[in-house]
């Protein structure tokens, strides 16, 4: 199977034959070959988008929204198929694959509702016989760059608000997970979106991503990925005066206080640390635990980690799938060595799994470090694998300080039954998302998603806040007095 670009409503490519293999991380099997596009193809897509967007912006928003309702309906109809494709190319277990597709469906219906809202403001004027209002205006052509860990949900958080607001888009998915983008392009075609409104261009970040950012007709770049790549995107985007929205890495923590329901905390930690094999941007990679419950929590975690079955995510009994590729395995394992060299105590895992059926895939044992201090690299850097570090603290204040003492600010959580602890924590935790008595994952699409500090640059995906990325505010004054009225001067 060859995955070809979707440009101007057609499956097309231009230039030399260049493809790369898409591998199933569970067993190394080749699933497809994907086009590695050139700047020429980006130019084609942008030209098509520019042309289409002019007409699209004039389609009434509720009519634009009708396409989203149809996209949501089709995604629902194909949910199981999409989840299977997602699990095969990305590796997350099938239950989570279904959950991710559901997130996309929810986003379609939610953003379709925006077609009849897209609220602006009406406000009194300081002058008589004058009307004042502000409306959201589309920006034009937007470029979407997405990571492999949520190959469909993140794209829906970006593309659906973009199109309901009257923009056209070019989407460059991660090279590791193009199949979901291909499936979505088929859905865009099936619902009959006008050619050029939705374009998918496959290829590398350095070639396709750069060409999108540098193209003068791409007005917005919405990027999700690592902080390292995001800063390059911001730098290049800045030079070209682009509006750049960045959602980047995390180093998320669960705080467990001495009055917590420990069994609930263990369940929350296991789900948010080892789900998606620790490759969620919101994955829990630090547990900040009160000294009075540390040893009990350690024993409970160790006991329950035994039940985490590891294998191909298509097997319904499996709880943890593979990591994305061999480089990821090496990176994760290098952090195990770093942790040991730094003096942290390895309680479980810390090695590659390659026995029997696991031999051809990329599997890492769920790993637990304890006696970690907050300045160690394993407590500071994003590992992006099934590795958790336990850090002991003596008070809520210290827990909050440790939580906030990293360069990222995506998600945090506190387990406590003391209402005062909970309210102090939700106020003082410096992250874009805070959970109380739940792990660090579980965002819902109608709330803003994003983080502070090194995780983002002030924009948000999903929720109504996403519309701010894809719209400009336009203020409109209508004077019906029939005479010149000067603001700030003729007010008496
Ligand atoms: P990545 O930064 O390697 O790649 C992300 C995307 O950027 C890919 O499509 C890639 O091809 C592209 N890219 C690479 N170099 C580029 C360049 N020079 N110019 C333009 N585009 C370029 O990230 P990844 O490994 O795919 O994803 C994992 C990272 O994403 C983790 O750090 C994770 O925390 C982060 N993430 C963040 C969020 C969030 O909402 N904050 C959500 C999911 C993932």
Descriptive tags:
492 residues; alpha/beta; 7-stranded mixed beta sheet; 5-stranded parallel beta sheet; 22% strand; globular; binds nicotinamide-adenine-dinucleotide; ALDH7A1-like; aldehyde dehydrogenase (NAD+) activity; 3-sulfolactaldehyde dehydrogenase; EC 1.2.1.97; EC 1.2.1.3
What would you say this structure looks like, in words?
The chain has two domains: 2-248 and 456-476, Aldehyde Dehydrogenase, Chain A, domain 1; 253-436, Aldehyde Dehydrogenase, Chain A, domain 2 (3-Layer(aba) Sandwich). Helices cover 37% and strands 22% of the residues. By secondary structure, it is α/β, with parallel strands linked by helices. Helix 1 crosses helix 7 (205-214), helix 4 (94-114) packs parallel to helix 5 and helix 9 (262-274) crosses helix 10. It has 14 helices and 24 strands. The protein has a seven-stranded mixed sheet, with helices on both faces. It has helices at 39-56, 61-77, 79-90, 94-114, 153-164, 178-190, 205-214, 227-239, 262-274, 294-305, 326-342, 396-404, 419-428, 467-470, and strands at 2-3, 6-7, 10-11, 19-23, 30-35, 121-124, 130-138, 141-145, 168-172, 198-200, 218-224, 243-247, 252-256, 284-290, 345-348, 352-353, 363-364, 367-370, 387-393, 408-409, 411-415, 433-436, 452-453, 471-479. The protein binds nicotinamide-adenine-dinucleotide.
Brief overview:
The protein is α/β, with parallel strands linked by helices and 492 residues long. The protein has 14 helices and 24 strands.
Kindly identify the CATH topology of the largest domain.
Answer: Aldehyde Dehydrogenase, Chain A, domain 1
Proportion of residues in helical segments: 25-40%
- The CATH superfamily of the largest domain appears as Aldehyde Dehydrogenase, Chain A, domain 1
Q: How many helices in DSSP terms?
A: 14
Give the names of the bound compounds. Answer: nicotinamide-adenine-dinucleotide
> Could you give a short account of the major beta sheet?
7 strands, mixed
Taking the alpha carbons of the first and last residues, their distance comes to 73 Å
The rounded Rg comes to 24 Å
How many domains? The number is 2
Family: Belongs to the aldehyde dehydrogenase family.
Protein name: 3-sulfolactaldehyde dehydrogenase
Catalytic activity: (2S)-3-sulfolactaldehyde + NAD(+) + H2O = (2S)-3-sulfolactate + NADH + 2 H(+)
Keywords: NAD, Oxidoreductase
């Amino acid at each position: 199977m060859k995955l070809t670009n979707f440009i101007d409503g057609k499956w097309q490519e231009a230039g030399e034959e260049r493809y790369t293999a898409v591998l199933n991380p569970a067993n190394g099997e080749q699933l497809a070959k994907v086009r590695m596009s050139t700047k020429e193809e980006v130019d084609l897509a942008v030209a098509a988008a520019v042309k289409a967007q002019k007409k699209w912006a004039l389609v009434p928003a509720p009519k634009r929204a009708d396409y989203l309702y149809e996209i949501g309906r089709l995604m629902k109809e194909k949910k199981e198929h999409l989840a299977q494709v997602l699990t095969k190319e990305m590796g997350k277990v099938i239950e989570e694959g279904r959950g991710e597709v559901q997130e996309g469906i929810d986003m379609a219906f939610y953003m379709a509702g925006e077609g009849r809202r897209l609220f602006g403001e009406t406000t009194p004027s300081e002058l008589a016989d004058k009307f004042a209002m502000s409306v959201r205006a589309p920006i034009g052509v937007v470029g979407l760059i997405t990571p492999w860990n949520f190959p469909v949900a993140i794209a829906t958080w970006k593309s659906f608000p973009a199109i309901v607001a009257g923009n056209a888009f070019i989407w460059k998915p991660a090279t590791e997970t193009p199949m979901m983008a291909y499936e979505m392009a088929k859905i865009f075609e099936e619902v009959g979106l006008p050619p050029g409104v939705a374009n998918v261009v496959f290829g590398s970040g350095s070639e396709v991503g750069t060409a999108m950012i540098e193209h003068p007709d791409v007005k917005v770049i919405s990027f999700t990925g690592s902080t390292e790549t995001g800063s390059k995107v911001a730098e290049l985007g800045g030079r070209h005066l682009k509006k750049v929205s960045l959602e980047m890495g995390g180093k998320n923590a669960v705080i467990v206080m001495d009055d917590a329901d420990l069994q609930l905390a263990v369940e929350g930690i296991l789900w948010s640390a080892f789900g998606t094999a620790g490759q969620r941007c919101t994955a829990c990679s630090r547990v900040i635990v009160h000294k009075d419950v540390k040893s009990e929590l350690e024993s409970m975690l160790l006991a329950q980690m035994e039940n985490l079955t590891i294998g191909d995510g298509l097997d319904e009994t499996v709880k943890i799938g593979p990591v994305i590729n061999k480089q990821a395995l090496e990176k994760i394992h290098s952090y195990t060595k770093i942790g040991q060299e730094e003096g942290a105590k390895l309680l479980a895992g810390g090695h590659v799994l390659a026995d029997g059926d696991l031999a051809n895939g990329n599997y890492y044992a769920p790993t637990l470090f304890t006696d970690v201090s907050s300045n160690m690299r394993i407590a500071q850097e994003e590992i992006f694998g099934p590795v958790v570090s336990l850090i002991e603290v003596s008070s809520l204040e210290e827990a909050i300080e440790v939580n906030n003492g990293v360069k990222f600010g995506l998600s945090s959580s506190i387990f406590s039954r003391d209402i005062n602890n909970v309210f102090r924590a939700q106020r003082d935790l410096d992250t874009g998302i805070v959970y109380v008595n739940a792990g660090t994952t579980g965002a819902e699409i109608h709330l803003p998603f994003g983080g502070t500090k090194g995780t983002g640059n002030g924009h948000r995906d999903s929720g109504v806040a996403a519309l701010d990325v894809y719209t400009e505010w336009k203020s409109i004054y209508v004077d019906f007095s029939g005479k010149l009225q000067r603001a700030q001067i003729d007010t008496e």
